[in-house]
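Practice problem: predict the structure.
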Amino acid sequence: MIIKDSQFARGVVADKNGEFWDTTIPQIVFYGRSNAGKSSTVNRILGRKKLAKSSRTPGKTQEVNFYTINNGEFYVVDTPGYGYAKLPKTVRDKIRNLILWFMGTRTESRKSVMVVDAKIGLTDLDWEILERLVAADESVTILLNKSDKLKQSEIAKTLNTTRKSVPDGVDIIVFSADTGRGVDPFWAMIEKS
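Answer:
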C-alpha cells in the first residue's frame, strides 16, 4: 500500500443522535489498551511521525480520531486507549462507553486492528473488545507490538499462545512501531482481506 496523503479529519465523541463521517468510505480501526503503543503504531503504518497524537498521560485522548488517507480513499480510525487503572472510574467508563458506542455504529466496510503489547499479551479488556468484534463478524488483525523489546524465544512463545487462544479467522502479526517490523505484512493482510 502506498500512502500518498494522510491528514486528521476530526475527533468524534459519542452522540447517539448522529454520525459524523461518510459510512461509504472503508475504515481501518485501531483498538488497544493504554500504553500498548497504538498511536505510535498508527503513525508507523502511515509513515508519519506525529499524525496520531500519543501522550505520556494515558487516558488523555477521549475522542475517536478519524484520519483521511489518500484523499478520502479510506479512513484510519484511532480509538482511545482503554484500561488505565489510575484514571478515575468515571473517566474509564466514559472511554469504554465511547469505544462500545463506536463499535456499534454502521459502516459499509470496516477492518479492525487490535494493538497488543507482546510482553503482556491479551488482557481481560482486550478479550472484551475482541469478543465483541468477532461476534459482530468484523475482520480482525492483532498486532503484537513492542516485539523489539523481546527475545526471539519470547516472541515465539507469545505468538504461539495467542494463536492457540484466539478464534479462527483472527490474523496475528508480530509488530514493532519502533523498528517498523510487520508493516509490510500488515498492509499485505489488509489488501487481501
